[in-house]
Predict the structure.
Amino acid sequence: MLKILIDNPLLLLFLVAAIGYPLGRIKICGSSLGVASVLFTGLAIGSLHPELKLPEIIYVLGVALFVYTVGLANGPAFLASLRRQGLRNNLLVVGVLIFAAGLTVLAQKLFQLRPALTAGIFAGSLTNTPALAAILDIIKHTVPRDMLNRFLADPVVGYSITYPMGVIGSILSISILQRIWKIDYAAEAKQLRGFGVATEPLKNSTIRVTCQEAVGVTIEELRKRHGWDIIFGRIRHGDSVSLADPSSCLAIGDQVTAVGVGEELARVTHFLGERSETELDLDRREFDYRRIFVSNPKLVGRRLRDLRLKENHGAIITRIRRGDDDILAGGDTVLELGDRVRVITDRDRIDAVSAFFGDSYRAVSEVDILTFSLGLAFGLFLGTLPIPLPGGSELRLGFAGGPLLTALVLGTLGRTGPLVWSLPYGANLTLRQIGLILFLAGVGTQAGYGFITTFTQEGGLLLFGIGIVITSTVALTMLWIGYRVLKIPMSLLIGMLAGLQTQSAVLGFALEQSRNELPTVGYASVYPVATITKILLAQLLLTLLMR
């Protein structure tokens, strides 16, 4: 059987994935390793024989796919994070990561660890696979070929031994401090509405206007004056029904539909008048609504107000479904491939409006091979360019940092002329998952044999202990400075810790604790900076220690 696996790397790849992925879904004490279990399965299978490993191209392709799709998805959030308090938050993350690098160097000096092993401990304690990939990339370009296998195994061994506490230590830190500080996540969610996510599901409501102050004032002026975070849909004046637009005015006795979260709708209803017993949304005789897929590439990357839907198509959009989230459709909202827009228009225009947006599920499931390949190729090329460092050393972004940096820029742009850089939501997630599995299976089998030798014969327990100290110290420091010193709400801060760790398992735990989507805001705002910083610090750490 071993001979068959050695001679058939594709069989080995899918066997590792088939065993490792379901194991990662098993929860122990409420937590699971997730897709990282593929790495440990690869280590276990690779430990059976020194030749039982996947070709290098497997994990190179995997990490390039993973970081490129992550960058495309997080480009807009990365740009937004650099504004206002986002800059402060990212500086906090960078400072804590530099502190983590200092702790790693201290451990190396105290216990005389090998440089490549130390760099792997840094990547594992902070659970960052692109950083590990960057370390492997530097080793390939600097270590003599006859010593390459030993050096390539060291960082993966250090990463694999310290990785579990990188997840568990962060989760325990959140659990302990939220109890000590008695965090009320529900109260925070009410205060933090307006961070770009709904803290509760969007609802429809029909309001009867009885307030004289609302008469003669445009809807847009009312929204700005009172800070309403809602979207108006239809207005019934007497026997006629029309679509609301920013210039519409209300009159006493009008009925108007509104979309928003429950508490916000209650605030708007209290000012305008009272909840109507008649639900206008149920009357579909004149105006109808439909969920439509955005599959027309000409609309991607454009703001809703630029589409002039009301003027050109007699239609308005009240909400957008992106992935599993509903988003209020504001004028500055930018469309992405795969969005499902809820459109209200005349019954006889529904089909024409559907054709305008595309409404093709097949189209949003496909990948534009031209732009995807072109962007990834440029990222890989960027990763090969040397960056000079003091002392004559060179630094490369590698096959992890180059594609990530390129994807952040392209994801922010969305499109350049006719070229659409973004991917449909579903296609992005699929490629991201495949890329991560390829990488973890590849590096796991490559280092499996060396991992077992190190853990059983060369102080594996010591490395595990070092990982516990680094992860726990970093997590507690991040949370204490963020909450006590910078006064960052815990709902956002635990998401930021997940972003600092670039760890979806920690984010999942944070979402379970907060019971809202606010941790995803903190996560997305620091994830790109944390990833790039860890890649650069891991390379710098290895370069300096090997001198």
About this structure: The chain has a mean pLDDT of 83. The two ends are 43 Å apart (CA to CA).
